[in-house]
Amino acid sequence: DGAINAAAARSFSHCALLAGILPAVKQISAAMRDELHRFCCISRKKIPFIHDVVEKTGRYAGKEAYLAHLPATPLPRQGRLVFGNSAGIATMHVRTIVVIGASGGIGSAMAEELRNHYPEARLVLTARSPDRYSPLRGEWLSLDLENEQSVKDAAAATGEADIVCVATGMLHEGDLIRPEKTWNAIDPHAMARSFAVNAIGPALIMKHFLPVLSRRGRSVMALLSARVGSISDNRLGGWYSYRASKAALNQLIRTASVELARKNSDAVCVGLHPGTVATPLSAPFGGGERLEPHQSASRLVAILQQLSLTDSGKVFDWKGERVPD
Predict the structure, then answer these.
(1) What's the pLDDT at 188?
(2) What is the mean pLDDT of residues 123-146?
(3) Of 12-21, 74-83, 183-192, which range is least confident?
(4) How many Cα atoms occupy the beta-carbon half-sphere of 82 within 13 Å?
(5) In this structure, are residues 67 and 41 in contact, taking their beta carbons and an 8 Å threshold?
(6) 238's torsion region: left (phi>0), alpha (psi -120 to 50) or beta?
(7) Is 92 exposed, middle or buried (0-12, 13-18, 19+ CB in 10 A)?
(8) I need a labelling partner for 133 at 20 to 30 A (CA). Which of 46, 95, 98, 166 fits?
(9) What is the pLDDT of residue 281?
(10) Quick one: pLDDT at residue 112?
(11) Residue 47 pLDDT > 80, yes or no?
(12) Could you tell me if 166 and 229 are in contact, meaning their C-beta atoms sit under 8 angstroms apart?
């Protein structure tokens, strides 16, 4: 019934879990919690009772308490993606990288950045009309996120992937669709179009690409979101369709991460806010500092390399700060 000290954490956690005596433990140290976190993540499919773990108060609890309360491993600053206490993507052999929406400003910059980090990896790039973007070196596939069959075909052609980046989104379409400044400007067709591109399309990508994330090691899917999708951080109002569609995307990411944890315990699904980037999407709007695409891409890739397993389902901005729900 006593506390488990740091020195005994590793051996005790393995033995206790295998022997099924964890319910007898009433109080645990921080070191033990960290070790349980790591061990549960790598063993949950092999041991039926692995979901019954200890919450941060030291009391015996179910998997929701474990997932909600166990402390996250601190983010490393050496450019390594770490899950639990194990080395991640930056220190392993990355075989296949996918960038969906590689024809856009941020997508093409992400593709270049990832290729620089992993020059030996297979680089799969998608666009609705890939023939137009042949100067960007990679294996081009056709993918229209409003056409589920094309998403399914692209996932099948890709096969197993270690990193999937979804760099798609729509804020406006010329003068036809513009962000609303007042509820009087809400148009059902424009709103439906925003949801189709910013939420439903990415949901279809998750449907077909999350199952192909590698099970041979660490893997990650990152989808471009936006800070304006935060409900609690909304103090300015306006932009009804874009805000709502990005909020929906953030919820989809969170929901998918829960299922992903059950089906592929070494995989992560997160949202990334790239900042205000000098691309056609943001050109007509906003003032202040604008990032160049390569600057945003460099920071986003650095964030990917610092994620921990407990970050799955969350949204982070280009500075590495979590975007409020």
Answers:
(1) 94
(2) 87
(3) 74-83
(4) 15
(5) no
(6) left
(7) middle
(8) 95
(9) 56
(10) 93
(11) no
(12) no
Ranges of H-type helices in the chain: 9-19, 30-43, 63-69, 105-117, 148-158, 188-195, 201-209, 240-263, 293-304
Contacts (Cβ under 8 Å, ≥6 apart) of 62 = 51, 52, 53
Confidence (pLDDT) at 277: 81
- Token pair, residue 214, equals 């590698």
Q: Are 277 and 291 in contact (CB under 8 A)?
A: yes
Decide if pLDDT at 22 tops 50.
Answer: no
Strands 163-166 and 96-100: parallel
d(CA 264, CA 256): 11
Question: 114: helix, coil or strand?
Answer: helix
The number of C-alpha atoms within 13 Å of 29 and in the hemisphere containing its C-beta is 14
Residue 70 has pLDDT above 60, yes or no: no
Residue 99 has pLDDT above 80, yes or no: yes
3-state secondary structure of 232: coil
Closest CA to 225 of 213, 210, 242: 242
DSSP secondary structure string for all residues of 247-295: HHHHHHHHHHHHHHHHH-TTEEEEEEE--SBSSTTTTTS--S--B-HHH
Where is average pLDDT lowest: 5-19, 181-195, 205-219?
Answer: 5-19
Mean pLDDT of 269-298: 77
Angle (nearest 5°) at CA 180 between 179 and 183 = 160
Angle between helices 105-117 and 293-304 (to 10 degrees): 50
Q: 3-class DSSP state for residue 302?
A: helix
Q: Does residue 159 come out as left (phi exceeding 0), alpha (psi in the -120 to 50 range) or beta?
A: left
- Give the three-class secondary structure for 58: coil
